Amino acid sequence: MNSICILGNSHVAGIYKAMHQSAITNIDVYAGRGKLLNDVTQDKQSLIFKNPKFEFHSNYNNNRLRLTQYEHIVIYGCQVISRGLGTDWLINYYDSISGRYSDSCIQALFLESLSTSLAVKLIKLIQSSGYTGKITVLPSPLPNENHDKVIQAAHQETPDVLRKVCELYKLTLQDINVEFRALPEALLANNSFSTCEKYQNGRSDLVHLNIDGCTIVLNDILDELL
Amino acid sequence: MNPYDDLPEKAFWKTAVSTKNPFDIHQLWRPKFKIRPKHNVVTFGSCFAQHIGKALKQRGYTWLMTEKAPKNLASKELYNYDVFSCRTGNIYTTSLLRQWVDWALGASSPPSEHWSKGDRIYDPFRPRIEPDGFATIDTMMASRDVTLRALKESITTTDVFVFTLGLTESWSNSEGGYEYPLCPGTIGGIFDKDIHTFNNQNYNFIKKELLTAIRSMRAINPKLKFILTVSPVPLTATKSGEHVLVATTLSKSVLRAVAGELSSNFRYIDYFPSYEIINSAPFKGMFFETNLRSVNHRGVEFVMDSFFQCQSEVFGSPKNQRPRNAKRGESSDVICEEELLEAFSK
């Protein structure tokens, strides 16, 4: 029985594929579409997924994910930093560097985004079950550098917004005994606020990583968490 | 036959007030100009003005916002977005209004003064604009510059400028020749009796400052119209030496007189009687909270209902006017630095 599981939305599906490619079997993976993950509750130390279309990897019986079997739960994606098509992240990024708003205000904005994320909802459910193992959050991949709004950016500078957000989230989640771990910098485009084109999952998908990108994330998980 | 014979019912106390249910007292205002949902309306002034903008928006009118919050920020009001049309904070006096207008239109420059508390920096002219102040002096000044540009945009692009007159008592820096919204040392800054001076502004001064501000604004927006109101909220504290109740009556009376005269003498200035609605005896103080100072939501609703009803009576209802969409009983905290003075009451 594996002691680690990765739980999350469509981004976890990419991890699942990378695991298959690399013949890795020592992690359990639970991946579901974001909207379906919203429909989850907690009961008797299990997460219960109401929608039977939830895609699963293993150890998932009768729509219940028994939490106590894992020493470590990794929540990946789930609206942390970038959600949906990444537009909010880009808007917040631009707002952050525009100088129109104070650092305090922008910080409040990012914290509100985190607090309303699916990841935090899952954390609360997991912790309310009495789960005593480790929880780690990995953010969603940033929108691809071919995203229209990224292309519109003509900034010569590459302000350190992402690093500040990651640090903010690390400290915030630390307060609730959750570890935050940024995605590997190797995924970033030169502009530091989007994902490099070579890790884009097809020309029309500006949100998900391809198998190479997912492998980078997976290897990072394996290096740090196992 | 006498001049009173042909006067309407509203001209007589008995028919207009004493025999009526308070909520049936109407025709309190005969608006000079039509305000429609398509018209841009900006709101500035003292605490009570905050209600006017929100009420306009709830009714589907265009409450012009020239300084917008970051998208999706839920805690907008904590950062004083969506309180007035831009983030000037409360503008309690006509001289503060004139000062802000001068800065926005380039007639003068804001001073470099800043207040410190711990390692945080506060804007003396907007002491509560950020909940924890600013990180640096430069960011404070940059933020104020954003607001000044937004204020200029408000002036140049709005159709109607609503200003609520709040106070006559003011504090100024005699060396720099500028005014603060609050006495230094109360919620920020350090009081210096040698340079910080108190002035209970008189009628002529208040009128002059207001006219100067209005003329400056109309110089760049000649079609701009003004609606003046007087805040019904009593003083939190008075430095005048009088009882605060007496000082309040003096302040409000002077402000009301100024607003009334300007409304009478200028076709583009109107006066809306929110003060009378909240404070008059017929309404028996029912629109105040238990502290007898804050206006409750019923009072705000009644005032704004009167506003729109009077507009409709004179100009007809606008097409497709939205009914008020706020939930009854919904309240939002009015941001009032002056209330913080209560912390100093013994």
Summary of the model, kept short:
The complex is a heterodimer of chains A (226) and B (346). Chain A has eight helices and ten strands.
Written description of the protein model:
- The complex is a heterodimer of chains A (226) and B (346).
- By secondary structure, chain A is of the alpha/beta class.
- Chain A has helices spanning 10-21, 34-37, 87-98, 103-115, 118-128, 148-152, 161-174, 211-225, and strands spanning 4-8, 28-31, 40-43, 46-49, 55-56, 60-61, 64-66, 72-76, 134-138, 179-180.
- In chain A, helix 4 (103-115) packs across helix 7 (161-174).
- Chain B has 346 residues and is of the alpha/beta class.
- Chain B has helices spanning 13-18, 49-58, 94-105, 137-157, 203-220, 244-265, 274-279, 297-315; strands at 40-45, 62-63, 115-117, 120-122, 160-165, 169-173, 178-180, 196-200, 225-230, 269-271.
- Chain B starts with 12 loop residues before the first helix and ends in a 31-residue tail after the last helix.
- Chain A binds chain B through residues 88, 91-92, 95, 99-106, 108-109, 112-113, and chain B through 69-75, 78-79, 130-132, 134-135, 139, 142-143, 146.
Secondary structure layout:
The complex is a heterodimer of chains A (226) and B (346).
Chain A: E1 4-8, H1 10-21, E2 28-31, H2 34-37, E3 40-43, E4 46-49, E5 55-56, E6 60-61, E7 64-66, E8 72-76, H3 87-98, H4 103-115, H5 118-128, E9 134-138, H6 148-152, H7 161-174, E10 179-180, H8 211-225
Parallel strand pairs in A: 1-2, 1-8, 8-9, 9-10
Antiparallel strand pairs in A: 2-5, 3-4, 4-7, 6-7
Chain B: H1 13-18, E1 40-45, H2 49-58, E2 62-63, H3 94-105, E3 115-117, E4 120-122, H4 137-157, E5 160-165, E6 169-173, E7 178-180, E8 196-200, H5 203-220, E9 225-230, H6 244-265, E10 269-271, H7 274-279, H8 297-315
Parallel strand pairs in B: 1-2, 1-5, 5-9, 9-10
Antiparallel strand pairs in B: 3-4, 6-7, 6-8
Helix pairs in contact in B: 3-4, 3-5, 5-6
